[in-house]
Design goal:
The protein is of the alpha+beta class and about 325 residues long. It contains eight helices and 18 strands. Strand 1 and strand 2 form a beta hairpin.
């Protein structure tokens, strides 16, 4: 309700809202296998989503249509820390306090045009970036046909592979772009729903699927850029600027059902990837529960939930346009 109220306040300041392009709806798969663990939203739906961004020289913003409200002053509520710093992202760990302070500042906050700022990853310091390999059946099918994707191996699914990690040094925002480290090798786009952990776990704690959604701070678009080859996937996916998160963080209360979101990636107006999270093999609750059985989760940890069919190579000069229902749209340049 706090997030919805602040969003409505911003909408009142800027009535001419920029509409997020609507992604054509797909036929939803039967989700009966999922645990109905997400609590229903409290009260009426918000007028607009709460979108929190990091922009330019590590400034904090609230995105309102085509404008960014600079609420960097809200970072003053973060606790003073000394070495060694605690694991996790301090902003995400104190997100409610930051949002409260941002609401107090919003009336007098400076504004920038969204098109004029550089959007960085909304999470600055995750302790880990967790990947979910082959979490869509149609991606498994294409990988077994295209031997460059599979490196001549038989491709199984997440049930066999479990999870993997990408180096946190690979993380950038959409405004920073992707730089191909090995332009002579095939590098593919992989667009996905990214889940940002808000409530961490104690060492050895396993989150139940019924409680999984209580651990989510919000959602964003993820790009898991992947160099093809026979090396371990964590190596091939951990190159600098090969983990893109953005364009902002949408708080968890704004997404009614993350297991039923349309998303897409296009290049030059050509559809490359288009799917719905209802096609996930491991849904969101199961992914969080499973991850907690292997790792201690900290605020700000990023869980990339897997990519659907349509992965294909990028080249310098391409601009990847990624859209996710309920979150928004981002453009990521390749050089």
């Amino acid at each position: 309700l706090l997030h919805a109220g602040l969003a409505a306040m911003l909408a009142g300041k800027n009535p001419e809202k920029a509409e997020i392009p609507r992604i054509p709806m797909l036929t939803k798969a039967n989700n009966s296998r999922r645990v109905a663990s997400r609590p229903p939203p409290a009260g009426p739906p918000p007028e607009t989503a709460m979108k929190i961004c990091r922009f330019d020289d590590n400034r904090l913003g609230l995105v309102d249509g085509a404008a960014v409200h600079d609420v960097t002053g809200a970072l003053d509520v973060l606790p003073t820390m000394t070495w060694p710093l605690p694991q996790g992202d301090a902003l995400i760990a104190n997100l409610d306090a930051v949002i409260t302070r941002a609401g107090q500042l919003s009336d007098t906050a400076g504004q920038f045009a969204l098109r004029d700022v550089t959007l960085r990853s909304p999470v600055a310091n995750p302790s880990k970036i967790i990947g979910a390999p082959v979490n869509y059946l149609k991606h498994q099918a294409e990988a077994n046909i295209d031997k460059e994707i599979s490196a001549e191996a038989s491709v199984k699914t997440i049930d066999t592979y479990g999870l993997f990690q990408k180096a946190t040094s690979a993380l950038v925002g959409p405004g920073e772009g992707v730089i191909l480290r090995f332009p002579e090798r095939r590098t593919d786009h992989e667009v996905e729903l990214a889940v940002v952990i808000g409530k961490g776990t104690a060492e050895g704690e396993i989150v139940s699927e019924a409680d999984a959604f209580k651990h989510i701070a919000g959602y964003a678009i993820g790009l898991d850029m992947s160099v093809r080859g026979s090396e371990d996937r964590s190596l091939r996916k951990s190159i600098d600027r090969h983990a893109v998160l953005g364009p902002w963080l949408v708080t968890a209360d704004e997404i009614d059902d993350p297991d039923s979101l349309d998303f897409a990636l296009t290049i030059g107006g050509e559809d490359r990837q288009r799917s719905n999270t209802s096609q996930l093999i491991f849904g969101i609750a199961k992914l969080i529960s499973y991850a907690s059985s292997w790792y201690t989760l900290y605020p700000g940890d990023i869980l990339m939930t897997g990519t659907p069919e349509g992965v294909s190579p990028v080249k310098p000069g391409d601009v990847m346009v990624c859209e996710l229902e309920g979150v928004g749209r981002m453009e990521v340049a390749v050089s």
